[in-house]
Structures are given as structure tokens and as C-alpha cells.
Amino acid sequence: MATPVMDKVEAESAASPYITVTFRVRRFNPEVSAEATWEDFQLEIDPKERVLDGLHKIKWDLDGTLTFRRSCAHGICGSDAMRINGRNRLACKTLIKDINPEKPITVEPIKGLTVLKDLVVDMEPFFQAYRDVMPFLVTTGNEPTRERLQSAEDRERFDDTTKCILCAACTSSCPVFWNDGQYFGPAAIVNAHRFIFDSRDEAGEQRLEILNDKDGVWRCRTTFNCTDACPRGIEVTKAIQEVKRALITRRF
Amino acid sequence: MKIHKYDTVIVGAGGAGMRAAIESTKRSRTAVLTKLYPTRSHTGAAQGGMAAALANVEEDNWEWHTFDTIKGGDYLVDQDAAEILAKEAIDSVLDLEKMGLPFNRTPNGTIDQRRFGGHSRNHGEAPVRRSCYAADRTGHMILQTLYQNCVKEGVEFFNEFYVLDQLITEVDGVKRSAGVVAYELATGEIHIFQAKAVIYASGGCGKFFRVTSNAHTLTGDGQAAVYRRGLPLEDMEFFQFHPTGIWRMGILLTEGARGEGGILRNKDGERFMEKYAPVMKDLASRDVVSRSIYTEIREGRGCGPEGDHVYLDLTHLPPEQLDAKLPDITEFARTYLGIEPYTDPIPIQPTAHYAMGGIPTNVEGEVLADNTTVVPGLYAAGEVACVSVHGANRLGTNSLLDINVFGKRAGIAAAEYSAKHDYVELPENPAELVVEQVERLRNSTGTERVAEIRRELQDTMDANVMVFRTEQTIKTAVEKIGELRERYRNVAIQDKGKRFNTDLLEAIELGNLLDLAEVMAISALARKESRGGHYREDYPNRDDVNFMRHTMAYREVGDDGTETVRLDYKPVVQTRYQPMERKY
Q1: Does the beta-carbon distance from B336 to A1 stay under 8 Å?
Q2: Domains of chain A as residue ranges with CATH
Q3: B177 is in an annotated binding site
Q4: Considering only CB atoms, which chain B residues are within 8 Å of A52?
Q5: Disulfide: which of A142, B36, B129, B211 matches B40 by Cβ 3.0-4.6 Å?
Q6: CB contact under 8 A, B148 and A135
Q7: ipTM more than 0.85?
Q8: Interval B318-370: pLDDT, tens
Q9: Domains of chain B in sequence order
């Protein structure tokens, strides 16, 4: 077995890695003013750091009132979806170097959900749509004593949509959702898909009927914004199309 | 101030909290208070799997799992609890599968299993495939599945409610739980939750280290709340350093990577674990691997210009295997390091990962007020608790197991308790402490900054109480923590508002971290031996004569208001396994 060359990785180093960047952040605090405004912050940052690191530098060293949600800081918990340079991303999965630090980096709350303070939005409508699609396994009959069997192939069928972290990047990137908050939105459909195509589940028909509603899958105009926005790389639009097809053919 | 009344209140909505909630909601009127949203909890970051001797792919049994857990914990494990953990593991995994968890499957359609550190066939003969997994997203799948089932059961959540105080009322000389005090992030309002039973499931406290796999929000809030009310914390000196964190960032790269065949190498390309653990090699227990890595680094065989890390090498594994079994961690390497794991090794270093210690409980999840007395109505489960199934070092895949086994047990026990008991009267002025704490911070005119104190705390913890410790380094840490605690009294925040004041909450979280860091360092100073995750260079051997016992740390307040940590000890429960030298 070939042993890899061990010192390839860190050729660069030496010299200070820090650069000066401008963060242009959308601020809103109804305790202070009814108007939202842009505020610029200059900071020294290593371009290999995350946008979240930049926000922390602001909060910790410059302005403690800047408010945003975050937790795991590596793209798993789904807390820090925001609009960065006009695109929905997770702040903890976006490196400064990848978003042109020469220009001011704009950071805004995700769209289509009510802004409560700075980058914090009201997530309740988003979670309500999720809860409405029956996002849990439904089975009938007696439980087996051991696990239910599922072939590796059947398991693979819905693998993509199990990756969802409910960050709302997809739903809040959807023009249909911006115009009409009643639309279930991509994330809820993704989570319905996860069960509709699970061979163990027996409530596919019910979920399809829920999504056959006027605010259901037919509202999707396949703009692919959701697929572009998903930080987990889920093929969201494809999943929505599969649900539409299942509604027509009643085969899933 | 609002007062709510529930039969059962659960603090935290990660794996343990939601597993408890599913049981408790079926049996009692339950509220779950979480400072995040349920699916944001750090259970979701767990990757490699959940151990259970299903024997789906090779011979295995729960007795071997019990032994491995006890040996892995360097014999500080309570053996009755480890036996429950290993026995009930099987049903826990099957429960999750029935709830819908999408485990990876064998060709027969059963749950697939893979190797993991410290899990062995027949008491250490060779690695065994015991970890039930879903790619490298097992924690994510557990968290999602439990939340899905909470939705199904109609569990009532209070999202973004920070529990800041535990209410205790003494009835006939017995301390009983009366409820909790919570701060609502959205409004700044303070809420009293009166409850017959309270379960803490609020997770760990790893954020007192800088290089850590822990989320920003893991600040030991539950441990601190009960500790400040005079209840003990057990074995806080035992903290696990996971061998493979992304260099400098600490982001976890699962041990499953080594379970799939990944190899650790030093700058010479040498597979150094062969020297330290001839049988289990890269799959020795985590404390052993982390010490080996630092030994390589200290002896000049670390990688990079500063020689401060080693490599996790996956380049010999087929790309299809990496895509199928380790998709997330390979993506982390690409995203955060710009490295392609198909062709290049990944720079790693040990990362502060898991608190073995916590709020002492018995096997029913009941919290202990001392070595034997339970606090009626008070429960804890998961990383916040210390049962103790992990002893001095937790085995990989045993934490996802712990939250399921003991989360379920605590949920049932608490709900049954609340069915049989009445409310305990609230103390007079129940919100007093929290109101005082919040107002003091909001009105402070001090000069100290939260971020600066936290940075200094993390620096001293990383430098002095990490993988290698000595009396000198620990004393340095104790002294520094004392100084930081003094300065913390003079801390000020900039956000004086009520709405989503995360500035305020970060200050409160820092106070929790400081208290727990002090307990940890003082417990470590007194333990003059090396065992599991606690390694003293000045006492390199395990000392079963003097230290085969759990540390119990209590907060004492003197007449003049000075706070000190008082240490006591509790015997280890031993059933059938005699301590042996630990070799891998």
C-alpha cells in the first residue's frame, strides 16, 4: 500500500493570513426602531474562516447587540441559515474566501418569514408546515419482535431526503413561498418524500392527499432555487417532482 | 412573571430529552423546555453509531459489550449500570428502528453493524462489529427520528426557553424538586414551571475548551443549575478528548472512519498506533489513541511546519466506500480544509468531546443529593448525567446508546413519579435568584467583556487540563479560573434589551462554564493517579487502592459568602469484573 506524501497539505503558511473585510449586515430591532437598516463592520479575518466566525467577531468584539442563531458551527444543526451575498447559505458552512471578500459581504435574514430581530426570523410557520405532512413513520398491524427488514436498495430509495436538517434555506429561497406563505414549501415536501418512499411506511396515500392540496406540490414552479440553496446537497426539486409523479401515477 | 404547572418538565430536547419526552408524554402532562429548537441539539452531530450486540453480522452478546464498557471506562464504571446499558441496548436500537430510523442495512435487510473503538469479541480478542449506524449521520437520524415521534405523540415544546435555576423545597428535612425557572429568549420574560418531576437532559459542557467538537451552546447549564443549589457533581475531572478532530477547528471526524479502515499516521507516514495498541491498533479506546497522538507530537513526529498534528489517512479506501459510509466527514474535510480525502490525508488533533461526569443518578435516573439519598422528583439523563456507565472514559457509540436507554428510563420513572405524587410547594419568591442575575448583568457598568474572559478560560483549559495534566498545570488552571471568576463579577453586556438578548445569555452561559471549569480542575487536582481520560504525568499509573472511587464535588458557601468546592468520594459498584490492567 502506498503511503501518501505527508507534507503536501501545508505548503502555504508563514505570512499573516488575515485580510480586512466589510460585513454589511441587515439590522432590525423593533425595541429601538421600526425600520431595518444596513450596518457596515470592518474586521480582520483569515479568509479560511467562516462567515459565522465573522459574525462572532462582530458580536464578541464590536457590537454585542448583533443577534443571530447558531449552535454546532459545522452545518449539522441548521440554526444559521441566512442570506449571504443574496444567496441562502449556512453561515457556518460558508468560508470567507469563497464569497469574494474584496467586496462587502452582505448578510440578511432569510426571506418569507417574519424578522424578529437582526438575523432571527419566526420559524414557527416553517415548522408548522413540516408537522402538517405527518413527518413520522406510520405502520399498521402487530410490531415485529425484531427490526423490520428493508433491502439496501429500498433504504437507498429515500436516502437523499433523510439528510434534511430543517434549516429552512430551501423554503425561504422559494419565490412561491415568498409570495404566499400558505405554500407548504420545499422542506415540508422533502420530509413527506422521506416517508412516502420508505418501504416500511403505510401512510403514503394520506401524505400525498395532504400535498395534493391547493397549497401543496402543484404550487412548485421548478425554479431550482431550493436545490441550489440546500446546504446538505439534497436534490430538493427532484424530490418534489417525484412526489408530483407519485400523485399522478399513485405509484411510489 | 408567568407560572406554569406540569406533571413533568424536561430540560433539554436532544436525544435524551426527547427519548424521555416520548415516554413521559404518554403517561403525564409534560413540557419540554429547550434553549434551542429540538432539531438543533448536538445529538445531531454524533456520527458513527450506536452500540448494541444485535449479532446481525457476527457473533456478539451483551455480556461482551458490558465487559468492553467497563474496561473502556478503566474500571470506574458502575458495573450494574453498564450491564443495564448493554442489555437494554438491543431493545433501544429496535425501538428506534420501529420509530422509523433509517439504519444502513445488511444484504439480508437487517440493521448493518460496523467496528468501533474498544468494542471487542470475547473480552478483547479482536474488534467486533457492534455499532448500528446510518452512514456517518447516526446522531442526525436519531435526533430527527425522535423529533418525528415527538410530533406524532404531540409533545409540548417550549422552544428557546433557557432554564436558569432549579427550585428545591425542603419538606420534613428532605430536599425535593419543586420546579424550574426559565428565561424566554424572545421576550426576556421569566417563567416558573412548577412540576412534580423534573428531568435534566441538557447535555454537556465542552465549551470551556477552545478546541472542541462541542456546539457553542454546550455550556453546562443543567449541571450548573443543580450544583448551585447544593447538589453534587460526580467525576467531573473525566473529560474525553476525541482523537480525530479537524486540526485547529476541533470538528469531529468519526471514529467510524477508522472503523472503516482509516489509519493514523505521523510525519514519517508511520502507522504509529501499532506501537501503542498492538491488537486494537487505531481502534483502541479514545483516551489511549489521544495520548498516543500527543506522544507522537511531543516526540517530534507531528506533521506540518509546527509539528502540531497528525494525519487521518483514508486514501487507501475506495472512493465508493467513503461516499457510502463516510459522506459527511469527507465533505467536512473538503469544506473546511479544502482537502480531497480520496487522495490526501486529513490533518487532525484530539478535540475536547464528552463529559463522562455530571449530575449523579442511580439507574432509574433519579438524582442523588449525596452518595445514597435521592432527591425526590429530580431526574437526569444523557451527557448531563453520570450514572456512571462511562466511568473514566466512554467508548464510542455508547453515548447515543446512553441517551436512549437512560432517557427512556428517566422518562418512565419521572412520569410514574408524577402520577403518584403531588406538587411540592414553590419556595417563597421562586424567581429571586434569576431576576437578580439577569438584572445585575443587564444593569452592570463593569468593564470586563464576556468574550475576553471566555477566551482566557478556553486557553487555560486547553493548555493545562487537556490530555496531559500535572499538579503544576492543574494548579495554574485553578488559579487562572479563580482570577477569571473574580473578573466575571465585573462583566458587562452591551445589549440591554429584552428581545432575543443573546448577549445576556452568553454572559450567563459563561458563568456556568466558569463554575464547572473550577469543579473540573479541583477534582482533577485531587485525583493523584491516571485513569481513562484523566492522565497525570506526575502519577502515570492507575491507583486502585486510593482512587477506585467516584469524585463527588459540592459547592460550599462560607459565612462570609466565599465559595469553595468540597470534594467527597463514592464507592464504585463492582459486580462480576475485577479490575485488570488495561491493554488494547
Answers
A1: no
A2: 19-121 (3.10.20.30), 124-138+153-249 (1.10.1060.10)
A3: no
A4: none
A5: B36
A6: yes
A7: yes
A8: 999 999 999 999 999 999 999 999 999 999 999 999 999 999 999 999 999 99
A9: 251-351 (3.90.700.10), 432-571 (1.20.58.100)
